[in-house]
C-alpha cells in the first residue's frame, strides 16, 4: 500500500476531484507525549455516504472503521453528525492512516484532527446554532402568517414559501442529507442542492410577482418575467446531464442576472426611499442576495472552501426573515392607513358639498341682483 500514489491532506482545505470508486488519502499522526493520546479525525462535509479509516496496529493487524450517512447511527434523528473517527495513539507512536472517502461531490472541505473536548464543543455549537436558526425563522413565519391574517395579502404567503424553501435547502446541506432520507440511487437526490436551489429560485419570482402587484408597476405582465422565473427548473438538469454540469456557470450567470434585474425593477422605488422601513427592507435583501450568490458560486465548485462563503448566508437567514416580515407588516399597515385617510378626506368633501343648500344660494344671488341692482360693466 505504501508504494501506491495517495492524496496528501493539506493543513487548510483539501480540494480533490472525486472518482466514482472513491478517493484514498494517506496521512501520519505522531504522539510525542509520554501518555496515551486520543484525537478525533473530522471530515468537514455531510454529503459523504461512506468513509473508512484504515491502519496497521503495532502487531501488524489491519484495523478499519467506518463512518458516513450510509452507516446508520441511532441517535441521529434531525441533525446528522459529520463523518468522524476516534484515533488512540500509544506514547511516542507514529502511525500511518489510510482514509477512504466515497463522496457524492468533489472533495472541497477541511479534514481536521482535534481533541475530544473540542469535538464535543463543536457538536454542541452546531446543534445550538441549527435549532436557533430554525426557531428564529419559525417566529418570522408566524409573524408573516399574522400579517396575512391581518391584511389578506398574498405577499406574505409568497415570502413564506421562499424562506421555507431556502431553509430546507440549507437543512439538506448542513443538517441532514436528502439522499439519506430519499435514497442514494438517484443522482438528483445525491446532489439535492440543485433541486432545492431551483425550487427557491422559482419561489423568489413568485414573491417578486406579489410585490409588483402591490406596487401596481405591472412588471409581472411581461411574458419574459415568467420565462425568467421558469428557468429555475433548469438547475435540476445539472446533476443529471454531464453537458449541463460542464456549462453550469452559464446557467448561473443567466439566472443571477435575470433575478437581479427583475428584483431591481420591482423594488426600484424602494432604493430611493427616505423611509427607514424602505432602507431596512432593501438593505436586508441586498445583503442576503449577495451572500446567497456567494454561497451558490462555492457549491458550483469555483473556489476553495471557506467558512464565510458557506455559512455567511445561513447565519444571516433568521435575521433576514425577521426583518422582511416586520418590514412587510409595517409597509402594508402604512398603506392601509393612507387609504383610510384618503377615504376620510373624500368623505369629508362629499359631506361639505352635500350640506350646501343650492336652491337657497341661487335665490340669494338672484335677490341680490334684483334689489341691489348690481350690474357687470365692461371696463
Automatic annotation (TrEMBL):
Keywords associated with the record: Membrane, Transmembrane, Transmembrane helix
Sequence ranges assigned to domain 7TM-DISM receptor extracellular in this UniProt record: 5-114, 128-328
Domain of life assignment: Bacteria
Sequence intervals crossing the membrane: 128-146, 153-173, 193-211, 223-241, 247-264, 276-294, 306-328
The protein, known as: 7TM diverse intracellular signaling
Pfam name, any one: 7TMR-DISMED2
Organism this protein belongs to: Leptospira interrogans serovar Pyrogenes str. 200701872
Entry-linked InterPro entries: 7TMR_DISM_rcpt_extracell_dom1, 7TMR_DISM_rcpt_extracell_dom2
